[in-house]
Amino acid sequence: MTFRIFLTIALFASLAAFSQQQKLIVKSNGNIYNEQGDKFTPEEIRVLLEHKPALLEEYNSGRDKKSIGNFLMIAGSVCIFGDLALGFAGTHYPTALTIVGVPALIIGIPVKIGFRKKIRHAVSQYNNQVALNDGFKVERIAFCAGENTIGFKMTF
Q1: Contact assessment for residue 34 and residue 48, using Cβ atoms and an 8 Å cutoff
Q2: Are 122 and 58 in contact (CB under 8 A)?
Q3: pLDDT on residue 142
Q4: Strands laid side by side in the 24-26 sheet
Q5: Distances (CA, A) of 89 to 6, 48, 84, 146
Q6: For residue 101, which phi and psi values (nearest 5 degrees)?
Q7: N or C: which end of the chain has fewer CB within 10 A?
Q8: Residue 155: which region, alpha, beta or left (left: phi > 0; alpha: psi -120 to 50)?
Q9: Which long-range contacts (CB under 8 A, 24 or more apart) does 54-63 make?
């Protein structure tokens, strides 16, 4: 009896390990999806990459670049349009807000462009490592119960 329990636990542990190894796809704006089209949050991606520290560091670096680029672009735009609004109100135009806003906007564009490359590289490296370990693929595991039976249905 204990052998059956051990065998069942070992089987499901190995299936769980194989089912988590899935190919990831990077789409626009750094969003990451699996093969079925389900979107992952950055926290879920970090959980997938936590056993691969180099890839996790590169992914986090890409996310940081995205955040910094967004901040610079939004701050620069707000400074420029805020100064423009003050200029329409009758004050002297341009002021220090425009002088600070234009470089922030210009610097933010290449910073934001560079984040996709880091995220794509981290995801492609993850996919390459998953492809090396891909023994078989479990599409779906379902719990089934009948009148006199109970079990799991696995679709490969």
Answers
A1: no
A2: yes
A3: 84
A4: 24-26, 32-34, 39-40
A5: 77, 53, 9, 76
A6: -70, -40
A7: N
A8: beta
A9: 55/122, 55/125, 55/126, 56/122, 58/118, 58/121, 58/122, 58/125, 59/118, 59/119, 59/122, 59/123, 61/118, 62/30, 62/115, 62/116, 62/117, 62/118, 62/119, 62/122, 63/30, 63/115, 63/119
Report the b/e string of 95-133 with b at 16+ CB within 10 A: eebbeebeebbeebeebbeebbebbeebbebbbeeeeee
Pairwise CA distance, residues 2 & 106, whole Å: 67
pLDDT averaged per 10 residues in sequence order, the chain, 156 residues: 63 52 82 89 91 92 94 96 89 88 94 90 89 64 83 77
Q: What is the pLDDT of residue 153?
A: 81
Place of tokens 């089912």: 19
Q: How many of the other CB atoms lie within 10 Å of CB of 83?
A: 20
